[in-house]
Structure formats: C-alpha cells, structure tokens
Amino acid sequence: MARNADDEFLIAKPRRPSLARVLCYTPYCKCLCSTFLLFGCIAYALLCHFKHSAYSGLQPLWIHQHGACAQGYNLVPILLAVMLYTIYIMECWNCRRKLANMKKISIDDAVKYLNLLRESVPVVWWKSINYHYARRTRQITRYRNGDTLPATQVFYERVDTQAAGSVFIYENCGIKDITRQIAQLNKHRVTRIRLSKGFVFACLQAANEFEEQRTRFFNENEAKDDYMQVREGMELDGCDFVDELLCFDSLPFYLHPVIFWFFSIFLLSWPLRITAECCTSLLNLQLNKLFGTNYLSPSSMHYTGPLTRTSSIRSDQLEAALMDQQYFIVPSYSQAILLAAQQPTCLFSSNYAPLTNDPYILTNYGAIANNNNNDECMSLPVFPRRPLSVSRSMSYSKLQP
C-alpha cells in the first residue's frame, strides 16, 4: 500500500473530469444565462404570435389591447432577444479566441517539451531599481470666466538612477530535477496540461546559502538611492516556458472551429463546451528544482551541516543566462519538502566531501522539525558564520542615462 502511494506521488497521470466537476468549475455561466434568456424571449414572442396574433398585422392599430401582448409590449421580447443574441455571439467569440491562443502540439512533441523542461537549467534571479523623486515645474494655462490665466504647476517625477541584477549561485549546493514523471499521456485523446514552476531546498544549509546571497544583494543596493524597487523570480534557461498546453494527435470534432460556430449560431454553444470539457483530460504538473543535493549524504537525507562557500565566478552557464536579460517577473518562493535519499549531483565539476549527518529535517522554509521528539528541535547546534566582506554572487549593474 505504501509503495502504491509513493508511485502515485512520483507519477503524474491525466485524469478525465466528471460531469459534476465540470458543471461546478467551468466559467460558462454567462453563456448559460444568455442562452436561457434568449429561449425565454423566443418563447414570449411565439406565445404572443400564436395566441394573440400580435405580429400578424390583421388587427387595426386603433384597437386597444390589454395584457402582455398589447401594442408596443409585443416588441419588447424581440428587441431584448436581439441585444442578448449580440452579447451571446461576443461571448462565444471570446471563448473561441482563448482556445485559439492556446498552444496546440502533438503528444510526442509534448513529451519532448516536458523532457526539455526537466533538463533545463534554472535561473533564480533578483533585480533592483534605485530611484528618487525630483521636483519639477511646468507652465500651464487655466481658464476662469472665459479668461486665460497662466499658472505654474509643481509635480514630482520619478528618476531611475541605477538597475542591478543577480542570480543564485548553486555550484556548491548542487541541483537536481524532482519533477514527477508523466505516464499514460498517449491513452487520452485530448489532454490539457497546466504547467507551473518552483524550487525547493533539500536541507537547511542550502536554504541559508540562498537567503545569504539574496540578502547580500539587496543590502548592497538599497543605499544607492532614496528608494528601491525589487523583483525576483525563476526562469528556465534554454526553453520557452508555456503555462498551458493542449496536446492531441488528431483534432476532435468538438474543437473544430466550423462545428463550434455552427452550434453557437443555433444557441447550442453551452452543451458543446460542456461536452468538450468532459472529453478533455486534465494534467497539472509542477516543475520542481531541488537545491542542496551535494549537502546530502548517500546514507541519510537529513544532512544539514555547516555552511561552506567558495568563489563561483566561473559559472559560465549562469553568467550567459544573466547577461541575456530576458527574465520577467515570475514570483516563485521556496518551500522545503521531505525528499528521498539520492546520490548527490552537481551542475559544475567540483569535489565535495559529505560531513556528519544530523537527525533534523527541514519540513518548511525556515522551519526545523524532528522526527522523534519535537522538544529536541530547540537543541539544534548553531554553527559559526564568518563575516561577509565582499559579495561573491555574480551580479551586473547599469547606470540609467
């Protein structure tokens, strides 16, 4: 039973949603409401036509009629139906535009793309922009009682003085991809894959090393001007990350644009969308990068030894990725999780010697727990940290003109 649970955790399989889940979570309420209102207007107009002959033109205009189908009232459902049908068609066009903008690839290409994401090098970056506000004046013209009055307006303008950036150097701690494996993707006709990315730490030592470089970068740049705007995130170097994919080998009929618009014209867009959602399998995949594999001993996964760092200026891959300057805001903070013991791996060639193992594990980012006794967490040994003099993390800066 435990082995099946572990396999379920390590393997991601597409799942077809049930009808109840589709009805609860699909955002098609606007289409459904407009469809029901249109059917109501059509039923109203048909009732007035067949029961009261409101649209026949046989009755004279001077004969006054009473009721909902009287003169004038019989035009209300027709005008309302025209407006609702316009809204309905616009909503159908918006839904079709979202589906057209989604990236569509074959199943084999999807597997290759996911393997490329696993093999890609993560770049955890920080950026800061130093700025201040300058007092400016300008001449404006105001009008009062038809007269033009010149006036001087005082305003404050933001002036950016310097932009700097840095990345997390993980040459010492090591890295490993722990993304779940994909299985049974070819057994489903259509699969929608939602991708997300993040990173975790294997031990407290790797988390401290990350926080040390991050804090040093912000401390070095915060005093360069009055204010500082910061951004941070993670990118995968060498590949274009896409949030959502739609993979299939042959286009099914319910996703064909001609079929979609044929059903939409006859007010059957909502049933077609529900059918498409029920026939489309879903797969949520989190791309996780593990930092700190070099600090784990092959005999234990709870190693949190003292912090050791050396110069990492020869990290050519990270330096090239940083100078490319194509990393945007992708907020992705870390949380440490419990991982199985594995052989240490490293991105760059270097030699590391495992030290004494500790019985403590890192269950959350910045938190320490003990598997045997919670009271023993207070006795965690504190290792001395050498004072920081000059930043060794790779960074760049540029002066704004």
Automatic annotation (TrEMBL):
The chain crosses the membrane at residues 22-47, 75-94, 253-272. Keywords: Membrane, Transmembrane, Transmembrane helix. It is found in: Membrane. The keyword Transmembrane helix applies. One of its GO terms (cellular component) is membrane. It is a multi-pass membrane protein. Pfam families: TMEM151. Belongs to the TMEM151 family. This is Transmembrane protein 151B. It comes from Diploscapter pachys.
